[in-house]
Amino acid sequence: PLLYPIPKDLVQPYVEEEDVEGLQQDEELLELQFTGNLGAYELTEWNRGSGTEYVRNDEYYLRDIDEGPDLFSEGPLFE
Fold first, then answer.
1. Same domain? 40 vs 27
2. Is the dihedral of CA 58, 77, 2, 12 positive or negative?
3. 0.70 exceeded by the pTM?
4. Mean pLDDT score across all residues of the chain
């Protein structure tokens, strides 16, 4: 099966009601319409079966943080 992350709040009503059919018919989930803000990156292109493309999210609330762990300071920068 195809797996991708879905916000828990969108799936929770279907889990509580055990509504598999409703979940399988939810257009917002089927078309990934909920992907407006993925944190540090925004989805710009999605080609089913071949891949996705993301850009840096300038509105991300932790974008300019100066404190915190230096764990990823040497990590690659993706543009």
1. no
2. negative
3. no
4. 76
